[in-house]
Amino acid sequence: MKILVSFxxxxxxxxxxxxxxxxxxxxSVINPFDEIAIEEALRIRERGEATEIVGVTIGAPAxxxxxxxxxAMGVDRAIRIDDSRALDPYAVAxxxxxxxxxxxxxxxxxxxxxxxxxxNQVGQMLAGLLGQPQATFVSKIEFLDNKTRARCTRxxxxxxxxxxxxLPAIITTDLRxxxxxxxxxxxxxxxxxxxxxxxxxxxxxxxxxxxxxVLSIARPPKRAAGTRVESVEELxxxxxxxxxxx
Amino acid sequence: xxxxxxLIEHDRQQVKRPSLHAIALARQLGGEYALLVLGHSLDGIxxxxxxxxxxxxxxxxxxxxxxxxxxxxxxxxxxAARKGGAKTILGxxxxxxxxxxxxAAALLDAPMVTDVVAIEExxxxxxxxxxxxxxxxxxxxxxxxxxRVLTVxxxxxxxxxxxxxxxxxxxxxFDAASLPNGIQFISREERKSDRPDLTEARVVxxxxxxxxxxxxxxxxxGGLADALGGAIGATRAAVDAGMAPNDYQxxxxxxxxxxxxxxxxxISGAIQHLAGIKDSRIIVAINKDPDAPIFQMAxxxxxxxxxxxxxxxxxxxxxx
Lengths: 246, 320
Hints:
heterodimer; A: 246 residues; alpha/beta; Rossmann fold; two-stranded antiparallel sheet; 15 strands; B: alpha/beta; 16 strands; 27% strand
């Protein structure tokens, strides 16, 4: 079985500032949800159910640092689609669609959302474009029937739901699927020898143009800190008389 | 022909109230809007949707739609949008809409904007305000093309009043036999609770890691919630530690709440959690660490030991 994991390079969530209509950071990282996707692919291979893990991301050469990190975790080889535009989720899904057609993986695993943009769209759009089944917000994956199907537990607003998807399929990961491993030194050394294939949209035969554009970014007004109360009695009094919620 | 098509969510018994909040955005956008509901045996649900000022309630009712499977639902939603000529397809943000609507957007070859909280008109074109980076920032987004898909944050839009003359209910005919068949529903964890729904409750009491275990969590967080007739929420840490089920999680990747009263017990205030509560009217924080970030945004803060304070609080409320 061949697994394609797609991952996004995002600003370190703890260190983001606004730079015009974009955000800037001194440090980029692999989107944490995508790291969970990479980890899951590694575990599937470690239990003997996958033979190859291909990583794919989109961006300028600067994202090679996150590609090396993915390779150091254990991804076998990587593809970077060389495109430094501010793409929207639909454009990303269309590019990934072309990569899936080229690579023909049995399953695509990716994070349910990127922590910078919080859109939560790409996996579902990719599945729609390819006409493949999808399982989103997944916290458990098992392969069944000689790896022709996957049984997935999904985290939904109403609790856990179990679905089975025919492969090939798209799976998006939720937080509790696993805890990603740290990159090891030998992993980093091995990563240097692993290939990164660089492709353009032209080479993939896909022409995309983002249809959504970010015009501006701003911080919301800060919620003012309130008052400290010293006792339960004082709290109850405030909630009754001042806030009028009791 | 309706300008907007609004996807309505239900739990097979009744409409999920937050899904009606998308109607407020459709009204702001202007033009007629239709409500779309998918499922099986929907007569009661469809009938409850007639007084919201829609041009029609469009009902896709078939055994093939009994479970909300994304491949089938997205196909039917896209077909209904095309046939009805809808320019905007909307839903309220939830795991349901986030599962099916992006897929429908791809089938419609349309862009999508997630979690809209407001719109602004500039030079005759509309832009959408949405939170990014765990709600620490807002982006204004412009959309091109003649069709778009949106989800709205229920907490940012009012529920519509059910005060308009009833609209017609129209059956949406589609070829059920040709729907995709790649996803099979296996099971759903059914947990019955007498407590109000987290996203609709007037009061939410929520707990973090210091609650230790499931039993303590239920006794303190559940006890206080019950004294106030409220719902229960939890932080990611509490859910990861098995103290509370996943659907209690509030924050960037969980639920967004904006109750009248939010009480945070033993919650330090990670940005990802604060993202889910900051529109609450009153926030009470009880924490033994006086430097916990949550005190920066709490309306009332009480520093102290949960195990002493919460039982006192429950008793004072019950006495009152």
